[in-house]
Amino acid sequence: MFTGIVQAVGKVLRCEPKQGDLRLHIQCPEFDWSDVALGDSIATNGVCLTAVALPEHGFVADVSVETLDLTTVGQWRVGQRVNLEKALTPQSRLGGHIVSGHVDGLGEVISRHPDARSERFQLKAPAELARYIAHKGSITVDGTSLTVNAVDGDLFELNIVPHTLQHTIMGEYQAGTQVNLEVDVIARYLERLLLGDRAAQRDANATLSETFLAENGYLK
After folding, report:
1. Kind and range of the H or E element at 65?
2. Distances in Å between the alpha carbon of 185 and those of 80, 89, 138, 165?
3. Band of the pLDDT at 158, cuts 50, 70, 90?
4. 141 and 178: one domain?
5. Taking the model in full, what pTM does it have?
6. CATH at 136
7. Alpha carbon of 164 to those of 51, 55, 132, 157: distances in Å?
8. So what's the pLDDT on residue 198?
9. Domain count, the chain
């Protein structure tokens, strides 16, 4: 588990194809590696990766085909900057929100413009994730815990303060940039709970809908 509070920005040192998947070498001299052990989880642009080797000032991780298909990792190139966060411990402060490091889908930056000293970004989410994104709710973008400022269908807005722009990769975003999205885990579980027994049905239509909510007394 993670908090979505980025601790450092590293770089992709090597991308090595390995029998259909990928081995990554991430380097970050500014990161505190003293308490990182083999097998530990490190969120890298929001993707939970397992350290399989710990060369100086960095780590090596294997990336599965599924992760390559569902995240931006397959697009990464040598020299690319990435957000890094070590896994949450019982002593950590929960400064952001509960983040699993399991990417739900890819979003796209639609636009950005100055808003006083901040920058306002508009992003587009996949249609199947839009229902989990709420005004003033939490969302994780490339591993950064952020508050949603506005929602319009599958579009949502973020107001990014100077500190976040300086200490994450968000300052590099432009229209067309693809990003890893993780929606609030509470919203996902709430949907399954509301489905009740229907959640166990092997039915593509067993999803939360306005009709379902009305039939089960959630709407008047």
Report:
1. helix 65-70
2. 28, 18, 10, 25
3. very high
4. yes
5. 0.88
6. 2.40.30.20
7. 26, 28, 23, 15
8. 72
9. 2
